[in-house]
């Protein structure tokens, strides 16, 4: 008999809704992946490095060329220096980086503050390491952080605060005031930060992404995690990275070497080459803002009420003028009746929470967004 370490954890809502979408032949606006082609130049680079013999194990921390480019990108964007040798580790996507960083920090009995709605890998990674998630709900309607509640939740067992900005699933972003509050909380305490910044290059309306790495106080206590998949529309390649000060990275790599050891070699070289042209990541925000604005214009005459998305490629929709059903049943109804798959928001919470909100992914071809919007306007 196996004693489950995650006995109360079932199948991810993303897998559930995508499976249903496929079974019902529905338009899939649920799971967060683009449905359009990636850059032909990036594919050309991968092909080149495969033919060039870059097909064996990469160095455990990642190929130096890619770590150098990541270090350079961070310095240019956030005015802080991570040494490519000692501070940057290439990972199998952001989820592996998150799991590894959480495993470094959390020991049995430790507490981790998680803001809800939350990406669904955070809490299980805390629990499997013997920790206790402490859930704090972000404040509607803008999903801001209630810092007074954070202060009240801090105990001698608090070891970790997980930040996610731009935020999945809400599209909220942190402000400089949030950075100031976080600095005050952790300055004289043995509390660390994991900053999930996988959507760092998808921020809208002229706003600038604020990275935890910009704060010297927080940088010294943080694992900053990002994803090439989200930036370059290559989610299936599963490559991300973790930036952290040497003393933290040393512990990170101790686990990383036994979880995956090394990451896909030719793709690492391809990303390194692709990053040399800054437009390849600096233009991503404007690309997705056009997608967001296009979709919002399409549904403006529907009964869905959009909440403001400041970043990511997700949009929350209030359906309270359409149905009084809970978000699970409403999402299932959409698949059955109009063949459009969305994600209910309640699975992003630890307890029953029904704000009559669903999440859609607008990282789709324009014709797909158009067809989905026409079906949604019928409700």
From TrEMBL:
Cited SUPFAM superfamilies: PLP-dependent transferases (SSF53383)
Cofactor(s) the protein requires to work: pyridoxal 5'-phosphate
Classify the source by domain of life. Answer: Bacteria
Give this protein's Gene Ontology molecular function annotations: kynurenine-oxoglutarate transaminase activity; pyridoxal phosphate binding
According to the record, the segments passing through the membrane are none
Position of the signal peptide = none
> What UniProt keywords are attached to this protein's entry?
Aminotransferase, Pyridoxal phosphate, Transferase
In the UniProt record, which is one GO cellular component term?
A: cytoplasm
Query: What InterPro entries has UniProt attached to this entry?
Result: Aminotransferase_I/II_large (IPR004839), Kynurenine-oxoglutarate_AT (IPR051326), PyrdxlP-dep_Trfase (IPR015424), PyrdxlP-dep_Trfase_major (IPR015421), PyrdxlP-dep_Trfase_small (IPR015422)
Q: Where is the Aminotransferase class I/classII large domain?
A: 25-370
Question: Its family?
Answer: Belongs to the class-I pyridoxal-phosphate-dependent aminotransferase family.
Query: What is the protein name for this chain?
Result: Aminotransferase
């Amino acid at each position: 008999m196996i004693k489950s370490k995650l006995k109360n954890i079932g199948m991810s809502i993303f897998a559930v809704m995508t499976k249903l979408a496929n079974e019902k032949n529905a338009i899939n606006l649920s799971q967060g992946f683009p449905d359009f082609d990636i850059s032909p130049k990036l594919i050309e680079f991968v092909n080149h490095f495969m033919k060039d013999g870059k097909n064996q194990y990469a160095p455990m921390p990642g190929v130096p060329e890619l770590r150098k480019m990541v270090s350079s990108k961070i310095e240019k964007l956030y005015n802080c220096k991570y040494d490519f040798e000692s501070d940057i580790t290439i990972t199998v996507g952001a989820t592996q980086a998150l799991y590894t960083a959480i495993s470094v920090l959390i020991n049995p009995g430790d507490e981790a503050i998680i803001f809800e709605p939350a990406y669904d890998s955070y809490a299980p990674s805390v629990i499997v390491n013997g920790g206790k998630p402490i859930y704090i709900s972000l404040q509607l309607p803008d999903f801001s952080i209630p810092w007074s509640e954070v202060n009240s939740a801090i105990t001698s067992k608090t070891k970790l605060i997980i930040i996610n900005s731009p935020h999945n699933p809400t599209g909220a972003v942190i402000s400089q005031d949030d950075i100031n509050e976080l600095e005050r909380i952790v300055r004289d305490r043995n509390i660390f930060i994991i900053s999930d910044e996988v959507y760092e290059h998808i921020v809208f309306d002229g706003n600038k992404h604020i990275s935890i790495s910009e704060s010297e106080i927080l940088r010294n206590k943080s694992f900053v995690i990002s994803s090439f998949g989200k930036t370059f529309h290559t989610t299936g390649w599963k490559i991300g990275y973790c930036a952290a000060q040497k003393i933290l990275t040393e512990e990170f790599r101790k686990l990383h070497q036994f979880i995956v050891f090394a990451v896909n070699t030719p793709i690492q070289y391809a990303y390194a080459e692709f990053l040399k042209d800054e437009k390849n990541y600096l233009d991503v925000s404007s690309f997705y803002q056009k997608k967001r604005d296009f979709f919002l214009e399409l549904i403006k005459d529907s009964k869905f009420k959009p909440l403001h998305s400041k970043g990511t490629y997700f949009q929350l929709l209030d359906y309270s003028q359409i149905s009084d059903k809970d978000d699970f049943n409403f999402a299932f109804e959409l698949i059955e009746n109009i063949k459009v798959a969305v994600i209910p928001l309640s699975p992003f919470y630890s307890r029953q929470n029904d704000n009559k909100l669903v999440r859609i992914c607008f990282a789709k071809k324009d014709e797909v967004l158009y067809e989905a919007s026409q079906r949604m306007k019928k409700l």
